[in-house]
User: Which sequence fits this backbone?
């Protein structure tokens, strides 16, 4: 049915309701939320659609979806993804206008996704092989670690969840301390013991913790982001840091390395 470059898969979310009455297929032109009811309008006229008797003539291309159920919320996430990616949706009507007068209620939604479309992204564990779910939405928070990823773990279910893959570790560029001038010899650092860290230049870019040893006075500092070594000549400004040992670490969501986002 599909050629090799454009194989397609259908994702279906069904909403429990009365027996279905009709179909409409198009891209979404607009979406709005009033209370707990989503109203959407399709771009193209529903040529194959036989509207329910309650549908007003001016709302032939409009539909409603309730957010009061888990399946409704999952279907809304699917609609948002289809709207943002301009994917066509096929809507099956419920045959009534219970959510809003004159507008038919949605019974089920289907979105066709081309496998060759690189705009469809998935969240993987740090091994780049274990798939955690299809990404529906990405939201940057106020801080780097607050990235929120809405995923669908099982593409054939109604389960949608939001995960925060950066919150389990700390991305940090360390300042290294040395006991003698010139930034030579064994390094010392200041860190929180047993905290999970990430630095692409440490532990081959995988997660690690720091086991701290003896605290020492140091006379030179190396800033890794600039590579600049600063010697301390005034004894009043001697810096203290710890001997340390790197230990591999894992996080519950991503495993031993940061999660990956890719098609």
Assistant:
């Amino acid at each position: 049915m599909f050629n090799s470059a454009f194989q397609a898969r259908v994702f279906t979310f069904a909403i429990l309701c009365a027996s279905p009455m009709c179909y409409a297929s198009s891209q979404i032109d607009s979406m709005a939320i009033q209370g707990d009811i989503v109203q959407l309008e399709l771009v193209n006229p529903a040529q194959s659609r036989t509207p329910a008797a309650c549908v007003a003539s001016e709302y032939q291309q409009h539909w409603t979806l309730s957010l009061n159920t888990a399946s409704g919320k999952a279907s809304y996430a699917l609609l948002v993804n289809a709207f943002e990616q301009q994917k066509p949706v096929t809507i099956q009507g419920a045959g009534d206008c219970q959510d809003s007068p004159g507008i038919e209620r949605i019974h089920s939604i289907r979105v066709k996704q081309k496998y060759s479309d690189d705009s469809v992204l998935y969240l993987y564990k740090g091994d780049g092989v274990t798939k955690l779910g299809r990404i529906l939405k990405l939201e940057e928070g106020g801080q780097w670690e607050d990235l929120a990823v809405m995923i669908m773990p099982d593409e054939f279910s109604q389960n949608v969840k939001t995960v925060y893959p950066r919150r389990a570790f700390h991305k940090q560029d360390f300042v290294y301390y040395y006991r003698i001038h010139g930034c030579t010899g064994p390094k010392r650092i200041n860190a929180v013991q047993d905290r999970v860290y990430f630095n692409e230049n440490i532990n081959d870019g995988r997660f690690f913790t720091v086991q701290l040893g003896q605290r020492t006075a140091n006379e030179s500092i190396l800033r890794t982001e600039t590579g600049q070594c600063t010697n301390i000549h005034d004894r009043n400004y001697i810096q203290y840091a710890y001997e340390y040992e790197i230990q591999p670490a894992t996080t519950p969501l991503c495993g031993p390395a940061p999660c990956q986002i890719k098609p």
The longest strand covers residues 104-114.
